[in-house]
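Following up on my earlier message about manganese (II) ion. Here are the inputs again, as you asked, copied directly from the submission form:
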Amino acid sequence: MDCFVSSAEGAVPVRIVTRDGLEAWMQQATTAEANWVRVHRFDASPARHIVVPGRDGGIGQVLVARAEPAGQFVLGDLQGALPEGTVVALADEPEILQANTLAIGFALGSYRFDRYRKNPRQPVRMVAPQNADMDRVAAIAESIALGRDLINTPAEDMGPAELTGAIADVARANDAEIRLIEGDDLLDQNYPSIHAVGRASHRPPRLIDITWGSPDAPKVTLVGKGVCFDSGGLDLKPAAGMKMMKKDMGGAASVTALASMIMRTGLKVRLRLLVPAVENSVAGNAFRPMDVITTRKGITIEIGNTDAEGRVILADALAEACSESPELLIDMATLTGAARVAVGSEMAALFSNDDSLAADIARHGAQVEDPAWRLPLWQNYRSMIEGEVGEISNSGSGPGAGAITAALFLESFVEKDIPWAHLDIMGWNNSARSGRPKGGEVMGVRAIFSMLEERYGA
Ligand code: BES
Ligand code: MN
Ligand code: ZN
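Thanks, got it. Here's what our run produced:
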């Protein structure tokens, strides 16, 4: 992480203040400093900061306001708030949890995607807080940066091969076991739905399957939608809808980031990560509306719409995930536009067959400012995905409830007794917020990691 340094020499002190803290600071400040803060109307309202000049006209110190309790992103705006190359150091050493949180927030706000456009600006750097566990900070911040990179990379350079390659790199770095099934081997090994969706692309579909950890540890399985580009298939998307579809592997990127955190921090689990990676393309051999696919689980899917492809590839991945009865099964996917209509783009829509799991994810999400809001698996709406020729249709007959019918579809491929959560995510920050630059985002990852740490932490 190039946004941290170890030497505090010449660093600008950053003081984190609440409203009460600001009062106390004013008491001990010089008249000039106190006046400066007053004329700029800095009142320590949350998310604001002020640069206070020193005697020589340089940057003397920075005051950053924070809410009570302190959030994840107190320092999330610092990168853009100061002149390039500035080195900052916390004026007061926080206790360990707080030091980690602050450092992670600063690192997340320092993320930039510079693969194609180098940024000549020198980063603002922060002296690593003494109490911070910088290995942990790096494990979390670098995993998130990796996930963001995967989403931000254009589809041309992030096809099924590149996506599975990136996941294999993470696996190798952590001594995980890798199994990769590619192209027609998917048919031989009975993953018909992944093959059907991906077969029209000149870049063959794949399933990557990695396992890590002690075989005796509780089994946690993650599944992510890896549609490297979603043209809609023969039910082609219009231009506006297609434009951002390089992000349709946002679920895969999110579970990859999560897996990377789990492995790097050594949670006591036996982890499995399953990512079906395809491109939903148009060609003579594309799957068609009203085709029927006999899935791995044996359930037949009637294709109502080739643009509802995510749930189709997830069907085979979820069925395989259930074959070893994990203690916990979580899937993440940029599955529906309807979830965005329901909860907007700042939070995940959460579905679960297990009330305590849903409550845990929601609670941790609120704690770490990575919100997930539960929607119901409303069983009455199952009639909307009833097939005519096949058993289940991949497009709800409507009206409405598109995120729910998609989740109900997935539920058909999950064994009832396995605690399962499904996060329908945006995968993208439409505008920058503190610690969350505009562009690719791994949503729900910090929430779930926080929950897993509570359950399986050392
Ligand atoms: N990847 C899209 C969903 C999506 C669109 C997520 C925009 C985030 C932003 C998915 O494959 C899709 O096209 N879903 C359709 C389903 C419909 C055809 C039943 C949708 O949501 O419109
Ligand atoms: Mn689609
Ligand atoms: Zn899609």
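One observation from looking it over: The first strand starts at residue 4 and ends at 5. Hope that helps, and feel free to reply on this thread.
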